[in-house]
């Protein structure tokens, strides 16, 4: 049986160079170099499993992923529809408080 060369090493999606077993990190269904697995927003180096991904792109959990894709609303907590504390309780606010006063008398 003749000698066959080994299969080519997978390419890193960031630098497009070969990734060998000693430097391989598996994330987002791709093989990365340890130094190339970075947050797409802040460029912080990420540990395998210590990040979140959206559409195959890695982000650090806090603050980047939460700020970009987390809940919106009042102070980012998602509770209410007022956009700021200045709007809260004003006529322009879309919060309907009439239901809580029905039957109070």
Summarize the structure.
With 105 residues, the protein is mainly β. It has 1 helix and 4 strands; from the N terminus they run ββββα.
Q: How widely separated are the two ends?
A: 94 Å
Would you tell me the structural class of the helices and strands? Answer: mainly beta
Q: If you average the pLDDT, what whole number results? A: 76
- Rg, alpha carbons: 24 Å
Strand percentage lies at 5-15%
- Order of H and E elements: EEEEH
Largest sheet: 2 strands, antiparallel
Count of separate DSSP helical elements: 1
Question: Care to describe what's here?
Answer:
9% of the residues lie in helices and 13% in strands. The chain has one helix and four strands; from the N terminus they run ββββα. A two-stranded antiparallel sheet has the order 1-2. About 5% of the residues have low confidence.
Keywords:
105 residues; mainly beta; two-stranded antiparallel ribbon; two-stranded antiparallel sheet
Helices, strands, pairings?
Elements: E1 24-27, E2 30-33, E3 52-54, E4 57-59, H1 61-69
